[in-house]
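Worked problem 6 (solution included).
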Amino acid sequence: MSKIISFGKSDVGLRRSNNEDTFIARPDLGFAVVADGMGGPASGEVASRIFADAALEVFSKNSARSEKELPELVREVFELSNEMILSTAQNDPRHKGMGCTAEVLAFYSEGYVAGHVGDSRTYLFREGRLRQISKDHSIVQDQLDKGLIKPEEARNHALRHVILRAVGIREDLAVDIIRGKTRPGDIFLLCSDGLTDMLEDAAIQEALLLSPGLEQKADRLIALAKAAGGNDNITVTLCEVTAS
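Solution. The predicted structure is:
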């Protein structure tokens, strides 16, 4: 049986006046969330907060969960928040077109289930190596998959911020569900694109390797992203699996 510890932090960055990201780090409930809002300053904040509130509602009511049940709970978070965002936008014209990208990570006794929509990301840092376990829902990723562009072209591509999926945009929402087993020492990183637009994976891996605790790792990642330009809000949530 493993124990989870976690730490989350969000920074407005250097170019924005408001923060449209939201995160939750609740090891006591066995889950974490990062949501990156879109649709204008007020609306982006509303959408990401709705997503976080939906996750808290679902996992607060379902503290005991099995490997079989967990994927459906993760999916429920996305379905509930999608309905809530659409309803809010329909009832208040100020929020028309709002939505968010989102990551959910939830744990059971021997493993994890991740839910993913958009271009926020979930990574697994295991035995000193970083691996992205989510896959961006973006024009650039689609072009990479089809071999139309090379990886080195993707970073500065003109369409790099155009996403193909988001929560709260349409009634039918496709959610990526990723499952796996955990090991003691594993560290999961959930982050908004304010981090990954600024830092290559190699720099993220090095920061996780060299910084001592979760709080220091999060601080280091945000500091590096700001030093690289800090063009967007930067949100980092880290979950570490420890032997109980």
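Discussion: The chain has one domain: 2-135+164-243.
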